[in-house]
Amino acid sequence: MMKLALISTFLFFLLFSTSHAHLAPRTLLHSFSKISTNSNRSLTTKELWFNQTLDHYSPFDHHKFQQRYYEFLDYFRVPDGPIFLKICGESSCDGIANDYIGVLAKKFGAAVVSLEHRYYGKSLPFKSTTTENLRYLSSKQALFDLAVFRQYYQESLNLKLNRTGVENPWFVFGVSYSGALSAWFRLKFPHLTCGSLASSAVVLAVYNYSEFDQQIGESAGAECKAALQETTQLVEERLASNKKAVKTLFGAAGLEIDGDFLYFLADAAAIAFQYGNPDKLCPPTCASKEGWRRSGGGICKIC
Ligand SMILES: *[C@@H]1O[C@H](CO)[C@@H](O)[C@H](O)[C@H]1NC(C)=O
Ligand SMILES: *[C@@H]1O[C@H](CO)[C@@H](O)[C@H](O)[C@H]1NC(C)=O
Ligand SMILES: *[C@@H]1O[C@H](CO)[C@@H](O)[C@H](O)[C@H]1NC(C)=O
Ligand SMILES: *[C@@H]1O[C@H](CO)[C@@H](O)[C@H](O)[C@H]1NC(C)=O
Questions:
Q1: Which residue spans within 31-187 are E strands per DSSP?
Q2: Which structural domain, as residue segments, surrounds residue 106?
Q3: What pTM, to 2 d.p., does this model score?
Q4: What residue range is the signal peptide (predicted)?
């Protein structure tokens, strides 16, 4: 007896949604990088590096790691134009996108610089991500990274312009998690910025944020919520009886940790609501559940 019709419909949604959202963490918005096809997607992708302090809180530990950054100077009004620091968040930072910040930079004669977040992309302090090695991954360390980088970049610009002690007006920008960093940076280092743009900034950290999932249930409505809960329940049952089979069904045979698997499953549904696509999730999920019930619960296409 197979009850996997419901799961299989859900699988299609999972594939659909992840290919569009790149498994975005549920509470974080992904960058608005849809640029029209006939203009360049990036202002620059040329990597630059500087030596960052690993632990900003230790007076004894002077370890460094290589942190990646980018600069775009085409619009810069030499020598006293503003500097826009675009903060990168919890993903690889592969360049400076050609978005509205480019428009603002052009208008205001700004230089645009962007720093990759520690532990993401190529800015890796360690080769492996053991728990021990992850101890310097925090938003607090990241804020100091930004402060140190800001000082470093201002000094190297001054050097290039044959001057000392000059400060350009700095502005920080960020979206979602990096939006929170942008707001926090302005609060923590008011002397290092003239302003901050914090878009969809998630400034309130909530431990074990189950209210988020409760809201998903509310947004889903009774029927879809029940179908989603049943999906979770069916998958949990199968994880207990035949782990490999149910993971294989989702193309996730290689995913060893059950918690990760369940997280992706739940997140695939949650992001449908967060990004405004309940219509792509609920009707097929509910229809599948209904179809399975009416067929007497016996037939399943996939198995
Ligand atoms: C797009 O990028 C290429 C290569 O960097 C450059 O030659 C070209 O001028 C750019 N086009 C526009 C519209 O900025
Ligand atoms: C970073 O440190 C390395 C090794 O100490 C050094 O070779 C390199 O020049 C430094 N880079 C910068 C930008 O200071
Ligand atoms: C800075 O000074 C050096 C040496 O005096 C000179 O060669 C260079 O052109 C100057 N650069 C600028 C941007 O003024
Ligand atoms: C998280 O919150 C839920 C609901 O309030 C509770 O049942 C659960 O025990 C909490 N878990 C942790 C790890 O705090």
A1: 42-44, 48-53, 64-72, 83-87, 96-97, 111-115, 170-175
A2: 28-199
A3: 0.79
A4: 1-21
